[in-house]
Fold this protein.
Amino acid sequence: MKRGRFITFEGGEGTGKSTQVRLLVQYLKQTGADVVQTREPGGSPSAEEIRALLVTGAADRWSPMAETLLFYAARVEHWRQVIEPALARGAHVVCDRFADSTMAYQSYAGGLDRRLIEDLHRATMTGADPDLTIVLDIATDQGLNRAASRHDDETRFERKGREFHERLRQGFLDIAKRAPKRCIVIDAAQSIEQVQSAVQSAIKSRLSLG
Ligand code: TMP
């Protein structure tokens, strides 16, 4: 059985990732592909429990170091229980956030040494690198305004302040620049349909899917 493709979506708050993930999964399923939709933090029962600790409560509830270890604890379980078995059986996996989010949020924005995250990734996640990463990019204020109109209690990172989110945006752009073969940046200020059309073009040109 040919191994499935691992596609991740990344970006700051209010970039519309979840909508684009849903539309891409719908599109790939229409082509007859076996597709698994998942997200981080979370995606497996134990990782969803860790998610609740990370995304609620006071903005300074965890230090960037503690956050990184919790995100990786969740990621190791999610990879082992959900992503790896799906890819092995030939399904494509579309994941809302993955390791680039730890680099962007906890290192570029949070200030943790990037080598620490790279070493932790290498030590715990052998072979777990996406085939394609779609980075949705939007002006910081526009993204934060969009995120503020959502009604949920998962607002811990949204409340970290504008400068944090500006460093975050630049972080995602730098990650994409350093890995141009794996990453593509799409302008998320466009309409939902325009963004999805750019996503589908990327899937076709980079992975020959769809
Ligand atoms: P979500 O809002 O996209 O579901 O993600 C939950 C929050 O967790 C979001 O504010 C980004 C943050 N996050 C990190 O800080 N580091 C990570 O490694 C991941 C996966 C998410």
